[in-house]
# Entry
Amino acid sequence: MSVLVLVEPDDLSRQALTFARGLGEPVDALAVGEPVELGGVRTLHVAEIDGYAPLAWARALAEVGADTIVAAGSDHGHEVLAHAAVLTGGTFAANVTALEGDTVTRLRWGGSVVEEARIHGAPRLLTVAPHVIAAEDADGAAPEVRTFTPALADGDLAVRVAEHLDTSTGGVSLADAPVVISGGRGVGSEEGFTPLEELASLLGGVVGCSRAVTIAGWRPHTDQVGQTGTKIAPDLYIAAGISGATQHMAGCKGAKRVLAINADPDAAILASADYAVIGDLAEVVPAITAEVRRARGS
Amino acid sequence: MNLLVCVKRVPLTGGKIVLTEDERAIETRHLGFTVSPHEECGVEEAVRLVERHGGEVVVLTLGPPEAEEQLRDALALGADRGVLLATDGGDWDPEATAAALVDAIRAEPADFDLIVFGNESADNANYQVPIRIAHALGRPCISGLKALAVEEGQLRGEQEVAGGRDVYVAPLPAVVSVKEGINLPRYPSVPAKLRARRKPIERRTPEPRPARLEMLRLSVPPGRGRRAEVLGEGPAAAPAVVGVMQELGVL
# Structure
């Protein structure tokens, strides 16, 4: 039995590697282009492919082969393993949290529902659900590095990144912000977000929103937190005027603490928040801003 | 251009998910249904492409007979006709779903220039049906697009990635999957809804296949078992909020 993990230089890959080491089989890894620094791995295969090309990456995984092929629960991870499942004739389960024999536990509905499923056939291909297993680094000898050029088929490079457009504004992104302050339908209008912006900038955080806000056209979709928006993992998530639909909460499961500001003491979000302030967010948010300024003595 | 959009009927789950007694499905007796959000954007995107380049949009779904409602929703957004692969409502695994959709696509008179999916379904989120279909049809597949354009028989798509966008170019015919945010779907007008009721829907029965990813049971993860600690009411709660911020070290 062997386990092969696709690794990219990111934290989700380290989580996938931690999951793979927990399976109790020897673990090999595959990186593309350049080696990735990692431990607790027997062999690190480095496939010489220029840039992201999902089918070519899958071809490299299939060429190395293993009984269990694991990747991060990221856009790349899901996409490459879906291709690899076709190339190997294997069975692919996405967003897995555990593997016991031939039974996987995986997340549906953005983590609001857990599925137990039996995997028939081989190999098994698993992406690891993000932020369920904390990444741990393993000690031990550095892996043996083996560089190879995978035997690509015609068309394997037909879909590849042709160009990268840099749209970063230099500011902190929603996915990485230490504090996120989201507004929901309760904010009432586009202008209603101004006090949220003010508090966010004071805390070095960013403003997010719920799907209702995006659909109303008050904020761009890039601000949307949730199952079909951005998944965030801040130290503090402030959800103002957000009822707490499962699809929204799926986006902030990674938050350390959630503070709900809601006029309705029976809002669903109070069942999944750590703290709550009951009241009109148009009054509460500016009061918090003033109190932060006072606490900082400015 | 001939376009096909594949959609899925999913329940509107609201604030709390309850399972059926056999733990094999979500209890939907009191719920409404919708098209999975990424896919609704897929329908809008296909309709916009046809508005620009001419052609036809066909919408395809595999689901219970009631999924006709979601086909009608897509037809109200501007799709021209629908195909319903009617099941008994049970859980189809991704390989069985892909195989049934491939059969249906091959049975179509039209040769589709572009087949559009949502990046993943809102419910099962298996992340593989579009890619399996692309392989079966021998077409390229670009996933998770937030922008899409067709120029001179070429497809140009953009994915949102950390710090920017990755651009892909591929020849047609192709398969793509899109994400919510690629557009803001139109709100169908009353005349559009009335027209949708008269548009043709063809019903077929797909051949069931054994599941290789066989669902055994579902569960809802336990909540934290307690409600949020109420820090106070109205602006008077501000000092307590700042206290929490100091504790968390975010001030």
Summary: The mean pLDDT of chain B is 95. The two ends of chain B are 55 Å apart (CA to CA).
